[in-house]
Design a protein that fits this description.
With 318 residues, the protein is α/β, with parallel strands linked by helices. The protein has 9 helices and 12 strands. The longest helix is centred in the N-terminal third of the chain and has 19 residues. The mean pLDDT is 95. Keywords: NAD, Oxidoreductase.
Length: 318
């Protein structure tokens, strides 16, 4: 039997060993390599990547598809010499569930005044009567209504929250007030008190979380100012504007899981800001086994003649 095409595992900043082990379990009949055998290695059919080295994939003559090992794909497009082959996003029920867990955790923490109670605990203060509106009186706005955003919206609805959403294209989601396009962004920003950001990073969305956006978040029925939760991409936010908005009262609090530069520098003012919760890009940290399984299933189906799922639109950038 002829040897099946190799899988290139190209990751930067991650330990490749857990991914190699998962690939060995899910694809024991395929050879996994960490680097091509020369720039024009003809044995490589597929590439599984996270922040791959620029130019690494450019000249592989038999490369059939690229698979992202994370929910985003902007790390792939950082390569200016990306070859013209299909790119597939990873969509895993485990990853989706973990992101929705993170969103629900942060929304509930701010809704139920977690930061304020932790501050009271530090000072040994017993004060019961902080405002506690019902979830049905609060609106959460979801920026980004892809797979992750839609699932988070459904989970928040099941907890009783009113939910609005914004996406580039118009869509209908039962029970969600959906706004679309730049022309409806002002109405969306006036619709909610807690904002969850799950947008992809594209040239159009880079830096979208800036002073102008925060100033347009005007709804303050139950909170002194809106809350920002960003679990999308670090490039979406202007961190100096977040700090300024918190200090000016345009925002009342922020939960940030992603950052302009990662790891977050120890000198960053975000670490010690009293109104900011920092988590280390851990919102949807799924296990390699949970992600590799669907990728190998896609490859097997593709080789039987099926179309790849979750393909990236190169023009849109996601």
């Amino acid at each position: 039997m002829a040897e099946r095409g190799h899988i290139l595992l190209a990751v930067t900043g991650w330990d490749p060993q857990p991914w190699q082990a998962a690939l060995a379990r899910h694809a024991p009949d395929r050879r996994v390599v960490l680097a091509p055998d020369g720039a024009q290695d003809p044995a490589i059919d597929y590439a599984l990547v996270w922040n791959q080295q620029a130019g690494l994939l450019t000249h592989l003559p038999n490369l059939k598809a690229i698979f992202s090992l994370g929910a985003g794909v902007d790390h792939i497009f950082n390569d200016p010499e990306l070859p013209e082959v299909p790119i597939a996003r990873v969509v895993s029920p485990d990853l989706t569930e973990r992101m929705s867990e993170y969103v629900a955790w942060q929304v509930l923490d701010h809704h139920r005044r977690g930061p304020a109670y932790r501050k009271q605990q530090e000072g040994c203060v017993w004060h019961e009567f902080l405002p506690q509106p019902a979830a049905s009186e609060m609106t959460v706005g979801i920026m980004g209504l892809g797979e992750l955003g839609r699932d988070a919206a459904r989970k928040l609805r099941s907890l009783g929250f009113r939910v609005s959403g914004w996406s580039r294209r118009a869509q209908q989601i039962e029970g969600i007030d959906v706004y679309a396009g730049a022309e409806q962004m002002p109405d969306f920003l006036a619709s909610a008190e807690i904002f969850v950001v799950l947008l992809p990073l594209t040239p159009e969305t880079r830096g979208i979380l800036n002073h102008g956006t925060f100033a347009a978040m005007t709804r303050r029925e139950h909170l002194a100012a809106p809350v920002l939760i960003n679990a999308g991409r670090g490039g979406l936010q202007v961190e100096s504007d977040i700090v300024a908005a918190l200090d000016m009262g345009l925002l009342s609090a922020a939960s940030l899981d992603v950052f302009e530069t990662e790891p977050l520098d120890a000198a960053s003012p975000l670490w010690g800001h009293a109104k900011i919760t920092v988590t280390p890009h851990a919102a949807a940290a799924s296990s390699p086994d949970q992600l590799v399984g669907p990728i190998i299933a896609q490859i097997e189906a593709f080789e039987r003649g099926a179309r790849l799922d979750n393909l990236v639109d190169r023009r849109a950038g996601y």
